[in-house]
Design brief:
Layout (H helix, E strand, L loop, with lengths): L5 H15 L8 H14 L5 H10 L4 H10 L10 H18 L4 E7 L5 H14 L7 E8 L2 H9 L1 E3 L8 H7 E3 L4 E4 L1 H4 L2 E5 L13 E6 L8 H14 E9 L13 E4 L2 E3 L2
Parallel strand pairs: 1-2, 1-7, 2-6, 7-8
Antiparallel strand pairs: 3-5, 4-5, 8-10, 9-10
Length: about 270
């Protein structure tokens, strides 16, 4: 295993926090080495100082993108935290169906990883609206900081084992079987989603229209308190009145300083 000095770790962790918001305390040193050492060996980079210098000197952004792809945790699956989707279908969609008069429904999957979350949302929308779906413009913005996982998400190809949690009729309706091992998301579901690279610590969000729902689940656990509070405020400003924010069940929002109204565990609303 390549060794990393305290100074090298502090430099690298500082760069990652400043540019991506991810907080890496000292106890994460072994994790950082474990995720980076094979890459350094493949590139014949001898030390973490040499690697750090390469990252900060690269003006194309490719080295930084490769770094965050290696550091990021991208564990996700279809129908993750199903209680969220029960509430989304049973309460949120009926409400939005009544109040969104122009039928222009905007949803953001922030930190979408390899795509399971936005595709799950798209399937719920199609299932809920049914024959009236064509009357609605239901675009889903799916963003992540890692180009590697965004490519996987955009391709929409998953192992058949990954679909096991989905209803049988959804697997038949929303996926095209490639072979005995893999399936592809149906074209009409893929067409609902816009995949984009986006850094959540961007000072000013560039979105022209407000969202009705934002999913940002199991992302803020990697941020320190100040970064998380800033992001929560940005989400609030990016939502339309009455809009919903879903976060991970292992996460929470400080209700004493947040403008969001608490609805239920991991569900908040802008009033």
């Amino acid at each position: 295993m390549l060794a990393i000095t305290d100074k090298e770790f502090t430099q690298l962790a500082g760069y990652i926090k400043q540019n991506f918001g991810i907080n890496l305390p000292a106890e994460k040193k072994t994790l950082v080495v474990g995720r980076l050492q094979n890459f350094l060996i493949q590139k014949d980079i001898q030390t973490f100082s040499e690697y750090y210098d390469q990252v900060i000197m690269d003006k194309t952004g490719k080295a930084a993108s490769a770094l965050i792809s290696l550091i990021s945790t991208n564990h996700t699956f279809f129908l993750r935290e199903p209680a969220h989707f029960d509430y989304f279908k049973g309460s949120v969609l009926p409400y939005l169906a009544q109040v969104v008069k122009d039928k222009d429904l905007r949803i953001w999957s922030a930190g979408c990883s390899s795509g399971e979350e936005p595709y799950t949302i798209a399937m719920f929308l199609d299932d809920y609206f049914g024959v009236n779906k064509s009357l609605w413009d239901t675009k889903i913005l799916a963003t992540d900081i890692s180009p590697k996982v965004l490519e996987l998400a955009h391709n929409g190809i998953y192992s058949n084992d990954a679909l096991v949690s989905l209803p049988k009729q959804w697997k038949l309706k929303y996926f095209e079987k490639i072979d005995d091992e893999t399936s592809r998301v149906a074209s009409r579901i893929k067409a609902e989603i816009i995949f984009r690279k986006f850094n959540l610590i961007t000072p000013v969000f560039p979105f022209k229209k407000k969202f009705h729902v934002i999913f940002c689940r199991n992302v803020m656990i990697y941020f320190d308190t100040a970064t998380k509070n800033s992001l929560v405020n940005a989400f609030y400003d990016s939502l339309a009145p009455g809009g919903y924010l879903f976060i991970g069940h292992s996460e929470s929002i400080n209700r004493e300083i947040s403008r969001f109204k608490y609805i239920k565990p991991a569900v908040y609303r802008k009033e």
